[in-house]
Write a structure and sequence with these properties.
Elements lengths: L7 H23 L6 H12 L5 H8 L3 H13 L3 E5 L7 E5 L1 H22 L6 H21 L2
Antiparallel strand pairs: 1-2
Length: 149
């Protein structure tokens, strides 16, 4: 039997903490601004990628092209994103955030950071060690994912 990374209690605690952070982000920040979590993910992906198309976003988010298209249509309708025909392949659309879309994302990031900062203040002086532990965990998970490829 392969040794588990975490005890059952640790797995449950991590799952619960991530779930609660996610719910707080959705209800207090995203829904208050009229954007769904899936729309937020698509907008973040477009912000992070250089002139992405629907397929690029879908690949990054592990989301089907049809789901990406639905989210993009909603973001376009809200004035947060535009679709521009690809210069080399006119059938393909390149995605770009509008200035108001970029501004909204910046507001969301700022508010999420403020809320997270307040939540993590409960760690007191242990906060720095906690952040270091999270970074180590992220690196270990990235290495584990690379082994599986």
């Amino acid at each position: 039997m392969k040794k588990s990374w975490f005890t059952e209690t640790e797995v449950f605690l991590l799952h619960e903490i991530v779930g609660r952070l996610d719910r707080i982000a959705r209800t207090r920040v995203l829904e208050a601004r009229g954007i769904s979590y899936p729309e937020f993910l698509v907008a973040m992906a477009v912000r992070e990628l250089t002139e992405p198309n629907h397929g690029d976003v879908g690949e990054l988010l592990d989301m089907s092209k049809s789901l990406v298209s639905q989210r993009v249509a909603s973001l376009v309708a809200k004035g947060m994103m535009v679709q521009n025909p690809d210069k080399e392949n006119r059938r393909q659309m390149r995605l770009e955030l509008t200035p108001s879309g970029r501004k909204l994302l910046e507001q969301v990031y700022r508010e999420l950071a403020e809320q997270a900062s307040q939540l993590f203040d409960v760690l007191g002086t242990g906060r720095t060690r906690f952040r270091q532990a999270l970074q180590l965990l992220r690196e270990a998970l990235a290495e584990e994912e690379a082994v599986g490829r």
